[in-house]
């Protein structure tokens, strides 16, 4: 039962990246999925959370990424995505996904954390 993130890399400011969070051993559709990030020397912060209700779920975002990041899910592929556009150096961090039963939960109660994928925004 694990989550695996991928899709990170080095990108110039203003560029885009698409991250994937793939679940194995369990059905991701049964949970909400959160995206989080942690920059060196900083606390981990929530980036987004997508529910598992309705067609495709609904998502909320941190103010720092609102309008630039979009999270979506493909239940057939047991995968949640984080599409990141207009990337800024401040977005540099390791990005993680994790699951819970509700997006109202605190970050500490999310579980099944993946190993993370590194995103570096630099010219």
Brief rundown of the structure:
The chain is mostly beta strands.
- Poorly predicted regions are none
Q: What is the H/E order?
A: EEEEEEEEEE
Strand content: over 45%
- SSE-based structural type: mainly beta
Distance between the amino and carboxyl termini: 37 Å
- The Rg value, from CA coordinates, equals 13 Å
- Overall, the morphology is globular
| Sequence of strands across the biggest β-sheet | 2-10-9-4-5-6
Q: Count of DSSP helices?
A: 0
Main pleated sheet: 6 strands, mixed
Fraction of residues in H or I helices: under 10%
Q: Give the overall pLDDT as a whole number.
A: 96
Report on the architecture of this protein:
The chain has 123 residues and is mostly beta strands. The protein is built from no helices and ten strands. It has a six-stranded mixed beta sheet with strand order 2-10-9-4-5-6, with no helix packed on it. A four-stranded antiparallel beta sheet has the order 1-3-8-7, with no helix packed on it. It starts with a strand and ends with a strand.
List the helices and strands and how they pair.
Elements: E1 2-6, E2 9-11, E3 17-24, E4 32-38, E5 45-50, E6 59-61, E7 69-74, E8 79-84, E9 93-100, E10 117-121
Parallel strand pairs: 2-10
Antiparallel strand pairs: 1-3, 3-8, 4-5, 4-9, 5-6, 7-8, 9-10
List keywords for this structure.
single chain, 123 residues, six-stranded mixed β-sheet, four-stranded antiparallel β-sheet, globular
């Amino acid at each position: 039962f694990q989550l695996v993130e991928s899709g990170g890399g080095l990108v110039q400011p203003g560029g885009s990246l698409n991250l994937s969070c793939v679940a194995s051993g369990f059905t991701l559709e049964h949970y909400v999925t959160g995206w989080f990030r942690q920059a060196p020397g900083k606390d981990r912060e929530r980036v987004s959370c997508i529910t598992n209700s309705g067609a495709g779920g609904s998502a909320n975002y941190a103010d720092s990424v609102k309008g630039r990041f979009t999270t979506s899910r493909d239940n057939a592929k047991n995968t949640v995505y984080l599409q990141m556009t207009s990337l800024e150096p401040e977005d540099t961090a390791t990005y993680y996904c994790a699951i819970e039963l509700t997006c109202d939960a605190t970050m500490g109660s999310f579980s099944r954390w993946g190993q993370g994928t590194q995103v570096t925004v630099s010219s």
